[in-house]
Design a protein that fits this description.
This protein is of the alpha+beta class. It is built from five helices and seven strands. A seven-stranded mixed β-sheet has the order 1-2-3-4-5-7-6, sandwiched between helices. Helix 4 links the parallel strand 4 and strand 5. The longest helix has 18 residues.
């Protein structure tokens, strides 16, 4: 995994048919240009082009994670990559908390959160997402 500011690289993965339904519902094109223009956000991409891990800076020490992996990069590859990115975020950016908001219907994504060390905090007020928190 390497840090990137290339919106073209991120957009290719985020809009891939394997990944797009796991990021956000809808069929419009996702553009990461604004997200990548914020220097407080941290974005990683895999060297093999299988996936991306995005940490959106919410406030000092707190980030929201977004993950997208092509089908052939899921499973053990994705788990190792996500853990590596989280460890790098803890060390280099002094993160104290990472959160995730997973749509209720994405069971595999909820399981992945637990596998990489997040704990469930229940659902949001609108009952649309499960909220997860990860600590070092």
């Amino acid at each position: 995994m390497f840090k990137t500011r290339s919106y073209k690289l991120v957009d290719v993965i985020a809009n891939h048919p394997d990944v797009r339904p796991t990021i956000e519902m809808g069929d419009y094109y996702i553009s990461s240009a604004d997200l990548l223009s914020n220097p407080n956000n941290v974005v990683y991409a895999s060297e093999d082009g299988y996936g991306i891990v995005i940490f959106v800076h919410l406030r000092p020490g707190v980030y929201q994670i977004h993950v997208g992996f092509l089908k052939h990069g899921r499973g053990g590859i994705a788990r190792k990559a996500i853990r590596w990115c989280m460890d790098d975020l803890w060390q280099r950016y002094e993160a104290s908390r990472i959160v995730a908001a997973i749509p209720l219907q994405l069971r595999a994504c909820r399981l992945l959160c637990r596998i990489v060390g997040f704990r469930s905090l229940g659902t949001d007020a609108q009952q649309e997402h499960f909220i997860f928190e990860g600590g070092q």
